[in-house]
Amino acid sequence: MNFNEVKELISIVDSSSLKSFELTLDNCNVKMNKTGAVAVPQTQTETITLSSVQPQSVSVSAPVAQTAPLAEAESASEDKKDDDKSGNIVKAPLVGTFYESPGPGKPVYAPVGAKVKKGDVLCIIEAMKIMNEVVSDFDGEVKEVLVKNEELVEYGQPLFRIG
Q1: pLDDT in the model for residue 53
Q2: What is the Cβ-side half-sphere exposure of residue 61, based on CA atoms within 13 angstroms?
Q3: Cβ atoms of 132 and 96 closer than 8 Å
Q4: Are 20 and 47 in contact (CB under 8 A)?
Q5: In angstroms, rounded to a whole number, what is the distance separating the alpha carbons of residues 59 and 32?
Q6: Reported pTM
Q7: How many other CB atoms sit within 10 Å of the CB of residue 109?
Q8: Which element (helix H / strand E) includes 16?
Q9: SS3 assignment, position 153
Q10: Are 157 and 97 in contact (CB under 8 A)?
């Protein structure tokens, strides 16, 4: 890993919503943590392990602007005041196209109001022409579908609220 690759990695992590990042390449270990004056609960941590033939060691800390976490915390508290959105959130396990049914004209897997059990199929996400079933991790009723049919979804994007 050379200096330009480290700079690019810092830029990518800094512009993302990640709070911490760790990359291990054989004897090379890169750890990045965003810190700020405002305490915001950590929402996402990813660990990636790869193999490489260039053993080096790099440790980097990337500061985060204080206004971004403050704005996120304020908007989160406003959302809670406006609507009581209790329930469990099912998130997208991969990037792809969201489909609410197995095919055109077929019944929707999990419409609002449907009772679901852990392991029930909620939707399909198509990625690289492969249809991936997304199953519920919770028992309950579908309170809200947070995306539209055939919409592109990102990894970790909320799809369903189950209460």
Answers
A1: 44
A2: 3
A3: yes
A4: no
A5: 7
A6: 0.49
A7: 21
A8: none
A9: strand
A10: no
CA distances from 25 to 50, 55, 113, 122, 127 (A): 5, 7, 47, 37, 27
Q: What is the mean pLDDT of each run of 10 residues along the chain (163 residues)?
A: 72 76 73 60 47 47 48 50 72 96 93 95 95 94 95 96 94
The helix/strand count (H/E) of the chain reads as: 2, 11
State which amino acid sits at residue 82: D
> Which of 163, 146, 162 is CA-nearest to residue 154?
146
Contact 108, 132 (CB under 8 A): no
Q: Looking at residue 26, what is its pLDDT?
A: 65
Report the pLDDT value the prediction gives residue 29, as an integer from 0 to 100. 73
List the beta strands (DSSP E) in 1-157: 20-25, 28-33, 45-50, 88-91, 96-99, 115-116, 121-127, 130-135, 140-145, 152-153
Distance of CA 123 to the CA centre of its chain: 17
- Per DSSP, 85 falls in state -
How far apart (Å, rounded) are the C-alpha atoms in residues 137 and 161? 11
The secondary structure element, H or E, covering residue 72 is helix 67-82
